Amino acid sequence: MEIKRIPIQISPCPLIEAVVDFRFQSPLPSDAIFGIIYKCFQGEFEKEIEKLPILQLPEQIRVQDPNLRFQPWYRLKDKDFLMQIGPQVVSFINLNEYVGWDTFFGRIRSSLNKIQQLDLVEKILRLGLRYINFFDFDIYKRINLQLLMANAPLAAKQMTFRATLATGSYLTNLNIVNNAVTRRNGQQKNGSLLDIDTYIEKDSLNVFADPGGLIGGAHNEEKMLFFKLLKEDFLAELNPIYGG
Length: 244
Prior knowledge:
The protein is α+β, with helices and mostly antiparallel strands. The protein has helices spanning 30-41, 59-64, 101-118, 211-229, 232-237; strands spanning 15-25, 50-51, 74-77, 81-86, 89-94, 123-135, 148-149, 152-153, 160-167, 170-184, 187-205.
């Protein structure tokens, strides 16, 4: 199925979390990286620093365990954004109402410029863009994805679909759950999650030189897959707005 036009905006927007993360290699000691980054960004975020649960583990385990290697250790926050920092990862998260791609990417690009000037990143190994969407109904009934059992559509009260897809130069982890629980504005809600995580991994990614190309490319692939999944009548209910 080909998409002729991609909306620039839909309403209501189902997005509950947008994340861009960078995994990198640095010649600096693990315990020095947070202090350097925090000093550079402390004026942009609240003064309170949140220590993440991984810090309860001994540092030797945190550093040597490959499953923990790219986990963040600290979190900074302001009204709409979180910044998570680890010895080999930095991630930027848009919480609450989505501010839109232009604003979100502008914040990321500005932050990358600052990090580049710190001269602590030897090379970037992975770039990821993840969008998590929430719907208060069974999403399988409204998307262009059909699971069959004995040649008949499969319907289940609880169903999870996971796949890793090749999307252009990127890979995408697609995760769809129709019986999920989330919290919005302090309230628990039941519904479906449509989770799209688009990423690229290489020995070295030149993100600093071309943030718009690499991050924008991931964003385009994510949008293409998202709108390809939506049935036409469902998309129409989301009041799509198209560019000129």
